[in-house]
Amino acid sequence: MILVAGSTGKLGSEISRLLAKQGRQVRTLVRATSDKETVRTLSALGAEIVEGDVRDAASVAHACKGITTVVSTISSMPTRYVAGENDIARVDAGGVKTLIDASRKAGVERFVFISFTMDSRFPLRDAKREAEKNLTASGMTWTIFRPSFFMETWLGPMVGFDYEKATARLCGTGENPVSYVSLRDVASIAASSLEKPSAKNALIPIGGPEAISQKEAVEIFEETEGRKFAVEFVPEAAIAAQQKGATDPMQQSFAALMLGLAAGDQVEMKNTAKEYGIHLKSVREYAREVLPQTVSR
Does residue 124 belong to any structural domain of this protein? Predict the structure, then answer.
C-alpha cells in the first residue's frame, strides 16, 4: 500500500488520483481541518482516508503501518502557512523528518519526496535540503524530485500574473529563461517513478519542454488572449531588499523564490521525458487551457 502525505494539496491529490488509476492501493494522510470536499474526492477514488498530522508523531506512526511506499508532497507554503503553528520549521523541516523517521521504523521500503530546484540559501530551501539529507541517510530506497517553477502558480494571479485582467508583475528584467513545468506533469512522473528502476536512489530535476523568459510567457498569453498586457517590473535590488528586511521565514522564502525566478532556472528534460514517455505541457498549451474562450489573433 502507498501512503500519500500532502494528499489534499493540488500536487498530492493529483498523484493520489493517478496512483488509484493505476490500480494501486492508496492511503491518504489528511488533517482534521482538511477541505471536506477534497477528502470526499479522495475517498471516491477508492483511497483509504487516515486522519493525522506530520506535526503529531503518533498519528504519523499509525498512518505508516502496513505501508510499503510513501510519497510526500507536504509543505506549509504557499497557502497553508501559519507562523508558529503550520510553518516551515514545524512542517517542511520537523514534519518531514517525523514522516521519514516513522516510515523507516515502520519498514517502509521506498520513499518519494518532492523538493524543488532552487539552491540559494533561504528557510524553505534549507528545510527541503535537510529533508533530502535525512531521506538519503535513512536506509530506505529513495527518489527525490526537484521540479522547477510550477506554471499554475508562477503564471497565475496569486503571484501577480493575472491573465484574466491582462496584467503581469515580472521579477527582475524578465529576460532569463525558466523551465516552467505543469503540476500535472510532475504528478505523472512521480506516480510513474514507482515502476522505474532508474528512479531508485535518484535525484531527478523536472522542468517543462522549453525554457522561456517571463517576457516570452507574457507574449504567449497576449497572442492567446488577443490583447496586450500591462507589465510591471520589480527590480532584483528591490526583491533582495525585501528578503533582507523580512522577519518571517515565509516572506524571506517567497522573496528568494522571486529572485530565483528573476535569475532563471533551466532544466534539460529530453532524456527524462523519453524515459517516462510523457508529453510535457508547454506554456502555450497552458495558456490555451486557462483561457478556453479566447481566440488567438
Answer: yes
CB contact set of 37 (below 8 Å; sequence gap of 6+): none
Range of the domain at 103: 2-147+183-207+267-280
What values do phi and psi take at 148, rounded to 5?
-80, -155
Please report where in the chains the cell 527541503 appears, as a residue: 128
Cβ atoms within 10 Å of 295's Cβ, excluding its own: 8
> CB neighbours of 23 closer than 8 A, spacing ≥ 6?
none
The count of structural domains within the chain is 1
- Dihedral angle over CA of 273, 275, 279, 281, nearest 10: -40
Q: Rg of the chain over CA atoms, in angstroms?
A: 19
Residue 212 is assigned to a structural domain of this protein:
no
Q: Which amino acid is at 11?
A: L
Q: List pLDDT tens digits, range 67-110.
A: 999 999 999 876 777 877 778 999 999 999 999 999 999 999 99
Closest by CA position to 18, among listed 247, 260, 183, 228:
183
Confidence class of residue 293 from pLDDT cuts 50, 70 and 90? low
| Within a domain: 215 | no
